[in-house]
Amino acid sequence: MSEHLIFELSSAGRKGFSLPELDVPEQPLDDILPAEVRRRRPPNLPEVSEPTVVRHYTRLSQLNHSIDTGFYPLGSCTMKYNPKIHEVAASLPGFRSIHPEQPESTVHGALQLMWELQELLKSITGMDSVSLQPAAGAHGELTGLLMIKAFHRASGRHPSTVIAPDSAHGTNPASATAAGYRLVSVPSDERGRVDVEALRRLVNEDTAALMLTNPNTLGLFEDRIQEMASIVHEAGGLLYYDGANLNAVMGVVRPGDMGFDVVHLNLHKTFTTPHGGGGPGSGPVAVTSLLEPYLPVPVVRRREQAFFLDYDRPRSIGKMRSFYGNFGMFVRAYTYIRSLGGEGLAQVSRDAVLNSNYVRTRLNDVYEEPYAGPTMHEFVLSGRRQAARGVHTRDIAKRLMDYGFHPPTVYFPLIVEEALMIEPTETESIDTLDAFVSAMREIAQEAESDPDLVRSAPHVTPVGRVDEARAARQPDLRWRPPGQDHDEAPGAATPGDAPEGV
Ligand SMILES: *Cc1c(COP(=O)(O)O)cnc(C)c1O
Questions:
Q1: For 418, left (φ over 0), alpha (ψ -120 to 50), or beta?
Q2: How far apart are CA 57 and CA 54, in angstroms?
C-alpha cells in the first residue's frame, strides 16, 4: 500500500465544505486586517473533497503498526492495549474542555481527580506523597534526582555520584548527568542481577543515590534488594526506583516496602495511557516523607472537602513543567485503576508474568537465553546462534514485520549480545502469543534455510529495508512510485514556495 501526498491529490476548485450565501453587509478586508500583515499570495493549500481527506488520513494511519492493529511486543515499553472506556472518560466535556488558566474554583472536579489519583498511586507504590507533574519517565527521573540533590544539600552534604547497573535503561545515566551527577556503573553478576559485592565496594560518602529498576531490564527480579537498600542508606545515599517496570509487580510488591525513597511511574506504560505516537507521556513521582518538602510546585492538596493547588512550599525544587502535567493522561490512568480495582491490578501483573514466561519457554530452545529465567513481565533472548550464520537480530526484527508483528526491542540491554527483548503484556490472548511464537520459530528456520530472505526483509511493508543511519539523518518522507529515483532533488514536488511574508 502506498499513499500520495495530499498536495498531489489536489485538484483546483475542489472543496471539502460549503458555506451559505453571505447574509450580512460585506466589510472591506482592509478594515479588518491591514494589507501589510496579510499574505501577498494565497497559501498553497490542497483542494480536495471531504472523502479524499478522510481516506487519505485513514490510509496514512494504516501505514504504521499500532496496538489497535496488531501485537506489539516492544520490550521495556509496555505496549499494552488501551481500553476505549478511557477515551470516553477523557472526552467528558468537564475534562476535555477545561483550560489550565481557569480559576481553581471552576475546576474543582479536575483537582479532585488529580488528588484521588495521587492517593491511588501512593497506595500502589507504598510511598507517602505524589507529584503528577513530570511529563514522562525520564522527566520523572530528573525530578526525583533534583529532589535527592535538594535533600542532600539541606543536610549540608554534596555527594557527586549516582550509581546505576550496567543493564540500566539509557535514561538513567542521562538523567543523572542532566541533574549534574557523575554516573558510576555497577556490573551485573552471572545471574543477571546487580553484583552486590561490587556495589558494596562502589558505595561511599560521595554516593548521592542508587538508581534501580526492579524487575531489571533483563526481566529479572533483584532478589537482594533490601541488602542493597541498606548498603546505600548506611552510606547516606538514597534509593531511586525506576518504576517503568511496575507492570510486573503492581499489587504484588511495593517500592516503598523494598526500601526505596523515590519512584517514578510511567502512566503511559503500566496504566495504559496511549503512547508511541498515540499520546503524550506522564511520569508521576512518589516519595517518602523524607523528600516530600522538595516536591515540585504546585502540589494538589485537600483541606476538608475542598481541593486546591498549594504553592506555599519554600523547599520545593520549583516547577518541572508548564501547568500541572498531562491532565488527559491522569483521567485515563484513573479510569484504568478504578475500573480494575486492587485485585484487578494484581491480576494484571500476574498475567503479564505468565504471558512472558509462556513465550520465553516456547522460544528458548531456538534462540539463546543468556540469563536463565523464570523472568517477570519481559525477557531477553540473544540472536547469537543466528548471527553465526550471518543473520543478525536486526534482520530477525525486520522479518517479523512481514509476519504482521511489531519487532521486539533490539540491541538492549547493552550487556546482551544480539539482544531481543520481548514484552508480551497481559492484554494478549494465547492465540496471539502462539502466532508470534510460530513466526519467531519460522524465522529461526529461515535463518538456516534461506538467510538472504531474512537479511533483505521486510518484503511486504509499505517501505522496505532502509539505510537506518541515512534515514535518521536525512529523512525523506515523500512517497514515490516504485522505481523512481530516491536521489532526485529534495523538495522537487513540495507544494510551491512558502508564501512571502509568512
Ligand atoms: C521507558 C523506560 C524509561 C523512560 O521512560 P520515558 O517515559 O520513555 O521517558 C526509563 N526506564 C525504563 C526501565 C523504561 O522502560
A1: left
A2: 6
How many angstroms separate the alpha carbon of residue 137 from the centre of ligand 1? 5
368 Cα to the center of ligand 1, angstroms: 26
Task: Say yes or no to pLDDT of 137 above 50.
Answer: yes
User: CA torsion angle for 400, 401, 402, 404 (degrees, to 10)?
Assistant: 100
Pocket of ligand 1 contains residue 136 by CB under 6 Å: yes
Domains of the chain, CATH where assigned? 85-339 (3.40.640.10)
Per-position DSSP letters for 120-182, written without gaps between them: HHHHHHT-SEEE---SSHHHHHHHHHHHHHHHHHHTT----EEEEETT--THHHHHHHHTTPE
In 58-143, beta strands by DSSP E: 129-131
C-beta neighbour count of 273 within 10 angstroms? 26
Structure confidence by residue, pLDDT tens digits, 406-419: 999 999 999 999 99
Ligand 1 close to Cβ of residue 171 (< 6 A): yes
Separation of CA 101 and ligand 1 centre (Å): 30
Element holding 242 (H helix, E strand): strand 238-243
| Contact (Cβ atoms closer than 8 angstroms) between residue 253 and residue 245 | no
Q: Whose CA is nearest to atom 8 of ligand 1?
A: 137
Name the DSSP class of 65.
-
Look up residue 209 and give its three cell numbers: 543515590
How far is ligand 1, taken at its centre, from the CA of residue 346, in Å? Answer: 21
Atom of ligand 1 nearest to the CA of 213: 13
Pairing mode of beta strands 262-265, 238-243? parallel
- Residue where the block lists cell 496579510: 38
- Confidence band for 480, pLDDT divided at 50, 70 and 90: low
Q: Is 175 in the pocket of ligand 1 (CB under 6 A)?
A: no
pLDDT at residue 323 tops 50 = yes
